[in-house]
Design a protein that fits this description.
Number of strands: 27
Structural class: alpha/beta
Number of domains: 6
Bound molecules: adenosine-5'-diphosphate
Strand order of the largest sheet: 13-23-24-25-21-26-27
CATH topology of the largest domain: Rossmann fold
Strand content: 15-25%
Radius of gyration: 36 Å
Length: 892
């Protein structure tokens, strides 16, 4: 127990799994908690004593599942193993923690999603100096860091990395002069901020006594260490050091090294904040948060896990650099053009295993013989992949050969030497468990071959002994057998006991037979067992050496893996472009977005073939900067505005876009504010969230941004809503000058087009045909003429009587409105008969003249605010209308 307590004292924040024989045991609070959480039987140790110790255990072969469940619950598990063979150890078996499994640091391939990275993130910094963020995927060595000047930006970047766990600075006094950001108050504030933004993300305090980040990075990165980093990006360096320190502490047995640290700037990539990622459904659909219905589902035609992860990264980090974008486009174009070569490359890619994670496991000393055999086989496939790519390059028409920078070149080093060495050493069907041997090829080691010969020769000798003894004794059923208790023995059935010779020594009596040993058998056994033990030791030694060789070549292999992943991703983009008829966009610095026959990549796939109606969109910061898109519900407004944003993302990834032609001026950010997306989980009102997101957009958007606004202002009363939407549009027009697509059912907003030079009205049309609404989905110039709300209500299945009643009310209202002089107020904005620019409805007069609450307007607004429309009978509504009108008519 003392040994256990020592270990526990060193890992107080982890649940300690303490290996005792075939079980992992937990004690004290760990045991009570885990028994409850995982539904295990709680027992006690030292039952007789006064203070029995609570304890529970799990069988060692099933440990993986239990650990996975605990990490999913946000816990850390320290695996404490027996470091010596209990059969030969004297006294207490040596035990120590070999690995800590945490939500973010996990190497168990079964609990890792092959298509997503598994990051542990670390932050540093404070509001005054800005923040640093680093994320590290221990399974692949992917290690990146960046800085963010505001907490908003930090939160966005964390969301983009989507870590499994986050390490915060330790609160309390700084433990070293370099311990950046460890100031109590601010750390607590940061922790609270993150908890609010990511309630389910496990937060962990940085390990106590962190070393200076610089020293840590220098040691772990070796030659890849950048001495200028701490100067240039101190917060990024601090966060990187923290992530590394944390990850290292989980692998006490291995000196965790990382191949490189990539420090990036937010401005290098198209900024997609959390809203944009969610609203554009890049990784998952809004509706059920699943991959189905997301952009990545359409794009992910990668064939390898590495490619799948890289595609996801490209999608979340689209580029801003024109040259880099065009380089990817060139490669995609070549692959689109060379279908045969592309198919050949993709066939090879499908056979290539997850090199990154295999190398990661080798580096940490947990790769199995099977892992290495798979690695060897995969390396062997690279020449075929290279040849396919050569074919694609050859088919390239007029393309410039970029030499080694060409992403379609795998390079000269394909790890062939290492691959050959692995294939030579290990059997192709090598097992996952190293200790049982049976995986080293003959011819690798002369000594191994010799002991194998003894061991197998032994088997032959055994058969010989059996045959000889049968002949000698005349007992046909005599058998030579083996068991763990007394090794090799001869078994003779009861009926033949009389024929047993005198030199047999009786050992045991069983139901129908007796068992004997002979001196010959005992000697034989000694030889065999010796040979077998030696064989296992030799195999393990050869395997370990091979694993070390792979680990030593990690950097090289990861470089190869990165090129393979890039090829896979490019081939996927090409495949998707080819299948769906996308075009290569012209990407430039013009700031213009000009798309002809653009489509929505996801909606078009869900629509029946040929049913998706393409549309043209042209946004120009100096021309049509803002598009006000009106049209009835369900007309396709949201689809249209999102498809533009998606095309920008796809173009800046380097891919093709769903359109006939497209010109995409590189954007710095894409913002979205879509629907009444409520964030009930965070307990905020829909409207408050909407306004917060809108404020965020107005604050951070620039003239190079694309802003997509859908139905803003809807979360409040109509008048508030129109006013806010109006003001937001004006602000974007006059100050921000961002390209904007603004979908709304407030026809009043069409009047903006008359008042502001860079606002253009378009509408998605619908027709009424025999009392039914028919959606044409086609854009036409000008605002929508009517809303078709009632037809949509009918479509949705509201009772016919109700629909009739609504029609009647609408007719009354329309007649009422028509009788009024132009510009006079209209009380029911969404049902307004004519939203054209000539008739401004309520806001016409108010907005043409500067907003001055004269003529009882304020009074009317106040009266309306006090009304709950849901509680109003049609009769009462009409009375109210009459009364309000009276208030506003000057003479009345
Ligand atoms: P709105 O925002 O105007 O209410 P949506 O954009 O949500 O309408 O579109 C409603 C539905 O119409 C979508 O789910 C889609 O199935 C279909 N749709 C939208 N645009 C098109 C189009 N261009 N071609 C074919 N179907 C479309």
């Amino acid at each position: 127990m003392r040994q256990y307590l020592d270990v526990k004292a060193r890992y107080p924040d982890a649940i300690v799994f303490f290996r005792l024989g075939d079980f992992y045991e937990m004690f004290y609070e760990d045991a009570t908690y885990v028994a409850r959480a995982l539904d295990l039987t709680l027992t006690t140790r030292d039952k007789g004593k006064e203070d029995p110790v609570p304890m529970c255990g799990v069988p060692h072969h099933a440990v993986r599942g239990y650990v996975a469940k605990l990490t999913e619950l946000g816990h850390r598990v320290a695996l404490c193993e027996q470091l010596e063979d209990p059969r030969i150890a004297r006294g207490i078996v040596k035990r120590d923690v070999v690995r800590v499994v945490t939500p973010g640091v996990n190497l168990d391939e079964e609990s890792l999603d092959p298509r997503a990275p598994s990051f542990v993130a670390a932050v540093a910094g404070d509001p005054r100096r800005g923040y640093g963020l680093a994320f590290l995927d221990v399974s692949t060595g992917d290690f990146r860091a960046t800085e963010a000047s505001t907490a908003d930006a930090l939160i966005d970047e964390i969301a983009r990395a989507d870590p499994r766990e986050i390490v915060l600075p330790r609160t309390g006094p700084a433990t070293s002069p370099d311990d950046v950001g460890a100031r109590g108050e601010e750390v607590r504030a940061l922790g609270a901020l993150l908890r609010r933004a990511y309630p389910r993300l496990p937060q962990t305090d940085a390990p106590a006594g962190e070393a200076a980040p610089e020293a840590l990075l220098r040691e772990a990165l070796g030659a890849a260490f950048d001495p200028g980093l701490a100067e240039r990006a101190p917060m990024a360096a601090a966060a990187a050091g923290r992530a590394l320190a944390y990850a290292r502490a989980t692998q006490p047995g291995a000196a965790l090294a990382v191949p490189r640290l990539e420090v990036f700037q937010r401005a290098d990539y198209l900024v997609l904040d959390e809203q944009a990622r969610a609203h554009l459904e890049l990784l998952e659909s809004l509706q059920d948060r699943r991959r189905t219905g997301s952009l990545i589902e359409v794009l992910d035609e990668t064939r390898s896990a590495m490619g799948s992860r890289l595609l996801r990264r490209w999608l979340l980090f689209p580029l801003c650099d024109l040259r880099a974008i065009r380089r990817r486009q060139d490669a995609v174009e070549s692959l689109v053009g060379a279908q045969g070569a592309r198919d050949r490359a993709r066939r090879a890619l499908a056979e290539i295993a997850d090199l990154e994670r295999l190398v990661g496991r080798a580096r940490l000393g947990v790769a199995t013989p099977r892992d290495l055999a798979v690695l060897g086989r995969s390396l062997g496939l690279l020449p075929e992949l290279g040849a396919a790519l050569g074919e694609a390059r050859a088919a390239q028409i007029g393309g410039t050969d970029e030499g080694p920078a060409d992403p379609l070149r795998l390079g000269d080093d394909l790890g062939a030497d290492l691959g050959a060495e692995i294939v030579r050493t290990l059997r192709p069907d090598a097992p996952a468990v190293p200790k049982d041997g049976g995986y080293v090829n003959p011819g690798v080691s002369a000594e191994l071959d010799e002991v194998c010969a003894i061991a197998s020769g032994g088997r032959e000798r055994l058969t010989a002994i059996e045959a000889r003894e049968r002949a000698r004794t005349g007992i046909p059923s005599l058998k030579v057998k083996f068991n763990n208790v007394f090794g090799y023995y001869i078994e003779v059935t009861r009926a033949h006991l009389g024929s047993v010779p005198a030199d047999y020594t009786r050992k045991q009596t069983v139901a129908n037979a007796e068992r004997f040993v002979t001196s010959e058998l005992t000697e034989f056994e000694r030889q065999i067992l010796g040979a077998d033990e030696r064989r296992l030791a030799l195999e393990l030694e050869i395997f370990t050496r091979l694993r070390e060789a792979v680990a030593a070549a990690a950097e090289r292999l990861l470089g190869i893996a990165a090129r393979v992943a890039a090829v896979d991703t490019l081939a996927a983009l090409a495949e998707v472009a080819h299948r769906n008829g996308y075009c290569r966009p012209v990407v430039d610095d013009s700031g213009i977005i000009d798309i002809t026959d653009g489509r929505h990549p996801v909606v078009e796939r869900l629509a029946a073939a040929g049913q998706f109606v393409p549309n043209d969109v042209r946004l120009d910061p100096d021309g049509d900067q803002i598009w006000i898109v009106t049209g009835p519900n369900m007309a396709g407004k949201s689809t249209l505005i999102r498809q533009v944003a998606l095309s920008v993302v796809m173009a800046q990834m380097g891919g093709f876009v769903p359109a006939r032609t497209a010109r995409i001026g590189v954007c710095d950010r894409v913002f979205t504010r879509v629907g009444a997306g409520d964030n009930l989980a965070r307990g905020e009102s829909t409207f408050l969230v909407e306004m917060r997101e809108t404020a965020h957009i107005l604050r951070y958007a620039s003239a190079r941004s694309l802003v997509v606004l859908d139905e803003i202002g809807r979360g409040t009363s109509t008048y508030d809503g129109v006013s806010i939407a109006w003001a937001v549009a004006e602000h974007l027009h006059d100050r921000v000058r961002a390209k904007t697509l603004f979908a709304t059912h407030y026809h009043e907003l069409c009047a903006l087009g008359d008042l502001h030079p860079r606002v253009r009205n378009v509408s998605v049309t619908a027709r009424e045909w025999k009392g039914e609404v028919v959606f044409l989905r086609k854009l036409s110039p000008g605002g929508a003429s009517r809303s078709f709300g009632i037809e949509v209500a009918k479509l949705a299945g509201l009772p016919p009587a109700l629909i009739e009643r609504a029609r009647a009310i609408l007719r009354t209202l329309e007649a009422d409105g028509a009788a009024r002089p132009a510009g006079a107020p209209h009380p029911v904005a969404p049902a307004q008969a004519d939203g054209s620019a000539a008739q401004l409805g309520l806001f016409g007069s108010a907005l043409r003249e500067p907003l001055e609450p004269s003529d009882g307007v304020a009074e009317v607004i106040a009266a309306l605010r006090a009304v709950d429309p849901d509680q109003l009978s049609p009769r009462a509504a009409l009375d109210l209308v009459a009364e309000l009108t009276r208030k506003l008519t000057p003479s009345g």
